[in-house]
Design the sequence.
DNA sequence: GAAATGGTGCCAAATATTGTCACCATTTGT
DNA sequence: ACAAATGGTGACAATATTTGGCACCATTTC
């Protein structure tokens, strides 16, 4: 008998009978005592809560609550998780990131494939740089959620994005750019866009952008974003270029 | 690589790329052509509809409508995701963290309640500080997975943890401490422990710890860890104290 | 015809699972 | 106090499964 089938059989038996013993289960599923104990360990690792009491009258019991409904996440939620883990990865050699990847892999597997394509496309343009020094920590205003929505729409739909911008000296301009990438240098986020009017890349601190709006177009094209010192807002930080996405 | 993981990887790859070839998949998942073909057969048996065309320009294609299983994460995977998002949160005011929290809340709801308690307990002792400057970036050795396992065991089981330590000057000592917290100042991780022999807190760079081992005890007690300048390894960084866990 | 593709059968090698056995710890009934 | 019933662990050899390599076939496209 297969491992999976045996696990299923054990769970079903516990569900049916409410309680049982290792030896009884062993005979029921046609395996040895040791194997059943191993299986129970595996089931516990998977999250099943199996109470056990030793001694006469003891036995195993499956906690009914451990068979909760599985998580059903919305696409934006998955999206947010993906960004978190990608950022973790970029932030340095952090433990557990492989596990987190495995978890996300499962989540990704459960998503409709067209959404997955969207998410990946969006992440392709996320560049998470090396972490910033403490300067500017208090400078970051609250991120405008509308901007993110507008950017996501613009990026996925290959639209221009139009917004009002205040530069470091307080000068206000109106911009319309092809959104090419987002650059994250915590705690600051930048929009990297190609400005057709200036025929060049420009980067914009996202907290200085207001009234964002996606503008449908046909001429949008994806460009290679040169993350060189002249584009990077904090040239001294040498933001790491993420060349491959392992998950 | 496990069979299940490989199957997952294949499905994900097909979802992502839309189409692929046996050889490409074989290289991607690190298995032989034959194995991939067997896997594809197995997946078809499971109900996945995988179209295939032979000849130049042919390849495999996953029918998007064939299957949409829900995500079912293992407890360690959820654990890793939680840490990722907690780290994101601590790293600064990053967008999407609310969404990620919402997603995790759903995942948490789907977990058995005692596991949730474990996760929370572990996270209680995770202090993620402000991000470090670029110094020391290459200094971090590869994290020993055993150490994390030992620490998790010790923390959840309220055990001491014993290990060999080499300090900055290369002096080697053996330590036995009550694990009180983990301090993360990317890319460095620290174990903050109460040293009964010295009747004081000590912190240890986790890459300088070797031969970790959980030591059962009855006298362990949780203490309030003072994250003050004299404890924080990078006093200039003023690690942010996480006062509440919103998820 | 050559190259690229999916697909199958076979078998030895590599890997994973399983059973056996010897223990240990706890609880309960006599 | 003792025995029996229970869960649990470690080690190791036996067994089962998975995997890789190979030869080969069929179809399609250039």
Sequence:
């Amino acid at each position: 008998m297969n491992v999976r089938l045996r696990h299923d059989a054990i769970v079903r038996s516990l569900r049916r009978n409410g309680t049982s013993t290792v030896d009884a289960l062993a005979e029921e599923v046609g395996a040895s005592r040791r194997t059943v104990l191993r299986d129970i360990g595996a089931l516990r690792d998977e999250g099943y809560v199996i109470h056990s009491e030793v001694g006469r009258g003891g036995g195993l019991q499956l906690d009914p609550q451990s068979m909760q409904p599985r998580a059903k996440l919305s696409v934006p939620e998955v999206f947010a998780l993906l960004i978190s883990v990608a950022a973790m990865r970029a932030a340095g050699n952090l433990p557990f990131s492989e596990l987190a990847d495995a978890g996300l892999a499962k989540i990704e597997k459960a998503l409709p494939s067209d959404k997955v394509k969207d998410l990946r496309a969006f992440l392709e343009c996320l560049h998470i740089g090396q972490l910033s020094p403490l300067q500017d920590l208090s400078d970051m205003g609250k991120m405008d959620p509308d901007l993110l929505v507008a950017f996501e729409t613009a990026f996925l739909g290959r639209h221009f994005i139009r917004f009002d911008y205040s530069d470091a000296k307080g000068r206000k301009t109106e911009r319309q750019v092809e959104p090419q990438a987002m650059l994250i240098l915590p705690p600051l986020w930048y929009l990297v866009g190609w400005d057709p009017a200036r025929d060049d890349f420009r980067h914009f601190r996202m907290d200085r952008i207001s009234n964002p709006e996606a503008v449908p177009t046909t001429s949008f094209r994806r460009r290679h974003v040169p993350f060189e010192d002249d584009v990077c807002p904090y040239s001294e930080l040498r933001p790491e270029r993420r060349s491959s996405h392992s998950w």
Remarks:
- Chain B touches chain A through 67 residues (CB under 8 Å).
